[in-house]
Structure prediction request, 184 residues.
Amino acid sequence: MLATYKLNLVFSKVSIATCIVFVFITILNCLDQPVRAQTQAFVKPSDLPLDLNMLKNPTGVTTANTFNQEELTIPSLWWAKENSETKLLDNWIAYPATDQQPARVDLIVNQQIWSLLDYLERYEFINRLGTNARSYGYNVRVFNYQQEFLGAYTCNFETVPVSCRITMNAHNRFRYSRMQNSKL
Prediction:
């Protein structure tokens, strides 16, 4: 009987030690999760150049001048273009997803009107159209006809919930800070 008691005591100590190790490993894994999630959460905008030739010859892409007679063309940005009182959004090229690149829309804006907007108005424009394109599974990049990158709305569609980020070029931030300093 004493041997059985000692044996049960040894097993209970092993069980407690095993539980402590298990809890410790679980805590370490939980602490490690947010770090991995943060590094994987955001996707950088595509670094492919804007191809304005696609506006003239839209092979395999959708533009503001491409219409599908049988079904809704995805992504549907026509309403956003027509609602733009300032005619800021001039055209776009929507590329479907490939094995190498996620689906994206390259927006082409009217440079004269873009230059009149302040930082917050530009941010709001990118956010509004990016949110619209996100609902169709597309990322957004914004350019002018000089093919200058102006900003992006990029999402990681593999995370739940989808995580998105707005990127704006340094010129946009500089203009905003310059305007703020001139008001002082």
Notes: The longest strand covers residues 149-156.
